[in-house]
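Q: Protein A?
A:
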Amino acid sequence: MKFVSDPAIAKKIRKMKQRVRWQDPLIVERNIDQTRLMLDEDRANDSEFSFLVVGDSGSGKHRGQNPQRRVAELMLPHHSECKFMLHTGDVIYLVGSREYYQQNFIQPYREFLVGGEHPQQIAYDEMVFKLPILPVPGNHDYYDLPIVLSLVSLTTLPIRRLLQSRLDMDIGLYGSRVGDAYAQAFLDYLKAFQSPGELARHLDKYYTGKTETGRCLSYQPGHFTRLPNRYYTFRYGGIDFFALDSNTFNDPPRLPTTKAGEADRKILEKRRQDLEREKMQIIENSAKLNPDNPSEDDQLDDMHAKVSQIEEIIVDIDKQLANNQPTQTDSEQLNWLKHKLIESWNTAEVRGRVIFFHHPPYVTEASKWQQAQTLVIRSRLRGVLNAVAEVIGSLRQGCPLVDLVLNGHAHCLEHLETMDTGAADSHIHWLVCGGSGYSLRRQRTEGADLIETLGNVGKQEKKLVARSHLFVGRNGQGSQKRRPYSCLRIDVTGDRQPQFIVRPLIAEWHQRQWHNYELKPFII
């Protein structure tokens, strides 16, 4: 049985639009851009600034340890020097449920919150940040409980096994309700206003940012810290940042109804059955272990990581098997990105571009590199960038279309660089920052080079499309096993040609002790 369900893309889009009252007549009347954010910062035009990056953080105090809190403590000395924090998604595990925000977000990041000296008094839907925390939703922020988990009797065998296990899965009672908890925590939840008058007064008070296209939401650290939408853009220090919701363009193509397609379906169905059996066996075995015994506690941590990994693979397989539904994609958001990138390249004061979203197009973490979602995200982002490149032409002057792409989803820290891919995503730097609290993963055994098979069945060639320069994840065996949780500080320097100095910060759990260190910075 599944522990999570992933709502349909059309439902995610519809619900999120309702929550921000997308294109409400009062919003249109005021010429408000609901995808633009303006940071209320006197030094927003400084060419040199720093920011932090975390991702896949939303875990609690599993087995007495709290990796997310250790990573938060790593960032505290940098708090005053950094202008904002980007979060690459999966704010709350396992199903984005509202009751876990206190334990899995507010408590770990209490120093970043107004009123953080009394974190237990902060409601998840009333958070105000001292330092801007600018997230994108991850898949777990959208996940819900399957009906069988939320409705059936607790006497059923799979649920009894789960309750008897020692895996501490943070299942949650409510689920995300199609991302509603995330929306109430971070978005400007305009749906809550009962009358047109209330909404009009709110818009006039907080949508005061002036842009070339009209008005936008003004983000005021310490006072009003809401986001206008699930995807948005902001400009800082001449760098355009584009935040995307990749959960609505990660739907892989359905298997064809050909003989080959049916064969692939049988293989996937068999793999899914095997994974379900393996998952339930792990859960059953975990009930026999004692978390107070150090060696058995270590086994429980491995089991927890394996179960969550299996669950994600099952969700990916289910997306491929869903032939009763047409493939869905968020064309509106992808078209928005295309037009915003073209606009950015035609704006003289913009000197660089950063995109951040959850699902990485390029990654060598073992559980993600061949997922159908990884491949379809790569394809759809390439399509957007190809369209942008065709329009802007010689404006690029040999530069990559985007300076930096930041992702999460893969539970590691990784720096990759694309080679000549034959598309407009060539020669771009990609940083995966998804090791900030939840169970870490290993790098694939195939190594650092990503090879793509191109061409038709009759004539195929293999091409090197990307290379991993750094991978920080679970490694070692037995007593030498290391769990290096991570975050990033990125310093932006330079003038017309910006440089990004990346400083990885590590809190490593090894031999039942924490060790903090910083890896050698590298320049992008």
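Q: Protein B?
A:
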Amino acid sequence: MRLCEIIERLGDCPINVLEKKNMEIDITGIRMITRAQAVFLPNILYFGQIKELPGQFHQDYCVNFLCYGRTGSRPEISPGSNLNLLMITSEEDAFVIYNRVQDIFLESEQVVTGMRAFLDALFADAGLQGICDVAYGILGNPLFIVDNSYKYLAFSSGTVADSKLMAEETAMGQIAKEGIQQIRKMQIDDKVRKSSRPFYFFNPVHKSGMLVGSVTIHDIEVGHVMLYEMNKPFTENDYELVHRLCRITSIELQKNDFYKKNKGTMYAYFIGDLLDSKAGNFEGSKERLATLGYVLKDELFILTISQKNNLTSQAKQDLIISDLQRLVPGSLYVVYDNNIVLLINGCGQGQNHRFESQDLESYLKHNGIIAGISNNFENIQEIRKYYEQALKAADLGQRILRESGLHRYETMSIFHILEVCESQDYSLWEFCHPALPMLMNYDKKKGTDFLNTLYQYLNFSQNTMETANYLHIHKNTLLYRMEKIRKITGNPLNHGDELIKLHFSFKILQYLNVL
């Protein structure tokens, strides 16, 4: 404990500071000054009559004294002496103050004992729950560790709820809506951030006192430790132990891969739970997000950038996330299974309700990033299905189209169908229209390009001008080729069903990397 803290704890005791070299020095105990003592240890507070002080100090380190007696009996101390000298101004109070200092050290020893138990739990890899249980044994009151979204990361085992609301919260694994509203109304979060030590407040929802400390990682707040005044009143030690426990919790969270990747953002754990299908029902999830200050719109999308983009570098991952939040404002992100996942809220455009962002698509292409985006959806509870759509779109886009940028599931879904068929041991060639093998064989024998000509003709919806321009040939050349194709295949190419089958067959060739 620092010397300045001891003086502060002594409060209104009649003490003057006569010499001040280093008031921030750590003091580990108090001892009496012995007669003719010449050697003094560092980090010890020596107690005795001021007349017993030596006139000279030969130590290089700072020596600390708490003295009583007549100031006039103080020996002449050589200039430049390295010491802190505290003087009790009333001799009658001297031994009372000595006993109070002893009590402070006894309390400090209890803190040391508690801290040792916290560290043992940390090094034993007991996890947040194990640390929380140990803390309950030390502090004697129920303990809760919550993240910034007010979700319980751990709460002490054996805690018996003393109210219906507390029972509901522990069952839900999160602070209830009325609790969050009260915390915000009382501005508890702001007060905790501004306080250098745990903050006490009376919680009118639970009708009990609470002691709250902030958990930070690299000066970023990621959660809180909350002590519930249920079994016994708080003591001064509780403030110090909760403060130390916040630091231990920070170290434990930094061992957690999810927290390291998500920087403890308010919504990350909630979205992670939704992706794990652990977040209750649709209305409950919408209400929970609204309580946290995020209102869901009726049209949602999931965008993913998978770990196949070489996201092993944390710096690269952080930069991409920062750019995505700039390019898609109002979105929420989470790093889940090493994939960057973006929840896009209400950005559908046009009659087909597609998400459109030229800036985002240009950014992805320019930086060689492969991303997938799901179809639009409304029910946040179905986020897992649409996350898998986005992953599949990115995977198929990379594998089949072999290009970076944004791949849409609505475009890639036909390849997904083919993938499912292939997984059932079907030969996809069997589903191809017979006209395509005919053209492939003809091209191989004659050196023509009829297969690609038919593909582009269908791709441009039988628009001869656009097809000819794309193939860099004259329109009459295209018409000649199309007539040859009709003769080779025996197909007039004028029936809707036939055109659909041909188009589907070309998708099979794309999937098989033949086209």
